[in-house]
Amino acid sequence: MSALPFRRATTTLVLLSLAACAAVGPDYTPPEPLLPAAWQQPRTAGLIDGVPLEGRFWRTMHDPVLDDLVERALARNLDLRSAYARLASAQALRGVAAAERWPAFDVRGGFEDRQESRNTPFGAFIPRTNIHSIAVDAAWELDLWGRVRRSVEAADRELEATEAELHAAALTVATEVVATYVDLRAAQRRLQIAQANLQLQEQTLGLVQARSTAGLVVERDVAQAITNVESTRARLPSIETEAIVARNRLSVLLGQNPGELPPALSAPAAMPELPASIAVGVPADLLRRRPDVHAAERNFAAAVARIGIAEGERYPRFSIGGTLGLAANAANDVFTKGSDIVAFGPSLRWNLFDGGRLKNRVRSLEADAEVAQVAYERTLLLALEESENAMTRFVQEQVRRASLRRAAAEARRAVELARSQYRAGLSDFQAVIDSERTVAQIEDDLVGSDAAIAGGLVAVWKALGGGVLPAPDAVVGSAESAPR
User: Fold this and answer.
1) Among 2, 31, 455, 470, which is least packed, fewest CB within 10 Å?
2) By the 8 A CB rule, do 227 and 434 touch?
3) Contact 272, 124 (CB under 8 A)
């Protein structure tokens, strides 16, 4: 082996070694936020210490209809289809960035019929020529300063952020399905209670009308009874509307047209069963469980990597290129001896002066990284606020429900007493009207409180991150081919 090729090979190996260990720009250091050691909300009313639930949290409600709705939504929801498409795009862009690490090969071929101008000094002496050629060109940029590696690093972090955003979208869809399903069952229950109260008030109206016919009561009592009945009847359409709106919302969440839900959802049923307790862990769990926090942190990491990309543009770019091909005047001579073309050598490109463009580009990306860091800190702070508020609402609503239960029991007893005393002539009809209105309102509030507690529990699950939701087993349309 001659000395010259040996020196060339040695130089190439040295350059490759440098390329393997150098990387300009700042290295990313994961933030270590100072989080409180415990939640402000005391452990009470079903909130306990322990590891928060992972995975399909809705299954703790033991409602097969709800389980089916959530699974179908995860497989068909349009927002999730968009999230899968964004994930596929991020994966492809990562492949684009990674491709820069490898040599590029181009194949070209051509034919040129060339005639020089005869009105130039030497044009009259240059004959008309035909050139047939075919060649392979190769080029490889040596990543001496880590520009390409920073580009791949940024693409990796962006891909991880997109994956986290997909999980965030899935968590949002799942919790919205559960909350809407609770609203539907609550509206159906409120409708049943309103209809039952309407029947009782109609019975009271019949009693008053009979007493009025007998001349035992004044006409005002009849008017008051009719007012009470019609006021309750007037509430039925609005409650029915709430149930229809909830069904339509569920249809859209499942990627269906409104009204395409199974008939089983039109029939009243009990609200989902709530678990006896829920483990809330500690605030530090949000760093691991909240997909939006993880996405913000990965976006911050990508922003830091992009600084290295811009910094690498300020350094010399070394490339190794070459051409291997064939060329001849006659097509029959292209593949004959002596038609070969061989070229090989390094090249250098260095932007020595650009008016500060690259320098300011680096400064801009450094500011972008600071913006991403602030966005991460803000996302984490909002996650803490959301968690505290969700737990507080969940606990306080249970206190409210306990009072409503006691009030509802006494209100029902008051209705019976008022009716008995009215029949016996011991009280006027206004007491009956007031007691019936009170019991109707309290029973409606009680159902609303039950729904608020169920919704509050869902809000706690969502605020704590809901665990890592599994990817859908099947998706519709373009999401079917999205990488898992």
Assistant:
1) 2
2) no
3) no
pLDDT in tens, 143-173: 888 889 999 999 999 999 999 999 999 999 9
Q: How many CA atoms lie within 13 A of 156 on its CB side?
A: 10
Collapsing DSSP to helix, strand or coil, 136 comes out as: strand
pLDDT digits 0-9 by tens, 452-465: 999 999 999 999 98
Upper half-sphere CA count for residue 442 (Cβ side, 13 Å): 22
Residues 362 and 306: their CA atoms lie apart, in Å, by 9
Across 74-156, the runs of DSSP E, i.e. the strands, are: 104-114, 129-142
Percentage of the chain with pLDDT > 90? 45
Nearest Cα to Cα of residue 69 among 267, 266, 253:
253
Neighbours of 340 (CB within 10 A): 12
Domains and CATH numbers, the chain: 22-101+144-314+356-481 (1.20.1600.10), 103-142+316-349 (2.20.200.10)
Of 396, 459, 466, the residue nearest 182 (C-alpha): 459
CA angle 283, 59, 397 (to 5 degrees): 55
21 phi and psi angles, rounded to 5 deg: -120, -10
C-alpha distances (whole Å) from 91 to each of 83, 150, 299, 469 are 12, 16, 15, 20
SS3 357: helix
Specify the pairing of strand 47-48 against strand 104-114: unpaired
Look at the alpha carbons of 431, 432, 436, 439 in this order and tell me if their dihedral is positive or negative: positive
Q: What share of the chain is helix, strand, coil (3-state, %, to 5)?
A: 65, 10, 25
Strand partners, 328: 132
Distance (Å, whole) CA 480 – CA 484: 10
Put simply, whether the predicted model's pTM sits higher than 0.70 gets the answer: yes
**Which ranges in 103-218 belong to alpha helices (H)?**
147-213
Helix (H) or strand (E) holding 238: helix 219-253
Residue 395 makes CB contacts below 8 A (sequence gap 6+) with 41, 44, 45, 46, 47
Residue with tokens 């040695």: 10
Cα separation, 413 vs 417, in Å, equals 6
Quick one: tokens of 361?
Answer: 């580009």
Asked if 435 and 415 count as a contact pair (C-beta separation under 8 A), the reply is yes
Burial of 424 (0-12, 13-18, 19+ CB in 10 A): exposed
Cβ atoms of residues 289 and 52 within 8 Å = yes
* b (16+ CB within 10 A) / e for 384-400: bebbbebbebbbebbee
pLDDT bracket for residue 478 (50, 70, 90)? very low
Do the strands 104-114 and 129-142 form a parallel or antiparallel pair, or are they unpaired? antiparallel
Identity at 340, one-letter amino acid code: D
The dihedrals phi and psi of 48, each to the nearest 5 degrees, come to: -130, 165
